[in-house]
Design brief:
4-stranded antiparallel beta sheet, 7-stranded mixed beta sheet, alpha/beta, binds pyridoxal-5'-phosphate, 13 helices
Length: about 350
Amino acid sequence: MFKLENLIRENIKRLTPYSSARKEYSGAAQIFLDANENSFGSPLPENYNRYPDPLQTEIKRKIAVWNNVKPEEIFVGNGSDEAIDLLFRIFCEPKQDNVLICPPTYGMYEVSAEINDVRVKRASLTANFQLDYAALEKGMDENTKLLFICSPNNPTGNTFERKKILKLIENFRGIVVADEAYIHFSSEKSLVEKINDFPNLVVLQTFSKAWGLAGLRVGLAFASSEIIKLFNKVKPPYNVSQIAQETILRAIENKTKVEKTIAEIIVEREKLVDKLREFSFVTKIYPTDANFILVKTVDAEKIYKFLLDEKIVVRNRNNIELCAGCLRITIGMPEENESLLKALSAFYSEII
Ligand SMILES: Cc1ncc(COP(=O)(O)O)c(C=O)c1O
């Protein structure tokens, strides 16, 4: 039986959270002398002298509607990286608890674990990048608090079968973190609709990818209101800036443009895949549901360096588990992809 209470660290249960001035007051006062802000304003014409809404009420109200969840079931963070770190701080006792990851996967799970002094157990994907159930089951013990499933997975690009992820959520006594940073590029449905069926499910999404707002640093976690209360208890009071909150609200007004961009990126992705296949030094292109492609080559280091000399940066994944010879290539604008292909043609001419 899943019991959230049993997973939370004792110090977090005991914690009296910081109570910010803006949290304590929500009436209609006109003179604010409560938060040591600068009433005279800044050197800029814009008004950023007041602290922002600590609970991002407007954003949550809008996101709740289109995701069919309650605002209390949403956490808005300084990127989804903030949500990842908070999960460690809420649930994982340093030096005692552990988390389970499925490499190759997003590197921040491991970095956050190390920062929080929490052991990482690994249930590596199979050779064709599928979840290894036997390894996952073997990896879980009574101190395993978090299981990270990234789908579509970074850097492999593939989506895991929904039925199988649901089975894992059902069978795991800790928290399953379904990282859906790239879900908007996939035809698979989000697991957000399942947060009421599974009290141990946390779904991460971000404005950094399909929404094209990586510079704002805004990410989301969807979960039961009990889990979201814990996020709010532990997070820094003003974790999302005024400018980020205002800009996200403007972006939401233009949501239809996001659908258009996603479609364009997918068209470009398929074009790039077709062209890359023509190079003899490309030995495999892995199927992808994301805005990037994992490409296996005969010599990733050499191609990576060649591209750098051409002022093109791709991600060298040669040294990570199951990815020998691989480069991860983000889909760019059509002219950027053309430049990449031109540089790769030059590389080809050089090696033959
Ligand atoms: C799988 C995955 N999750 C989370 C993130 C972090 O996203 P954010 O920009 O919201 O912190 C990334 C960024 O690359 C990612 O690839």
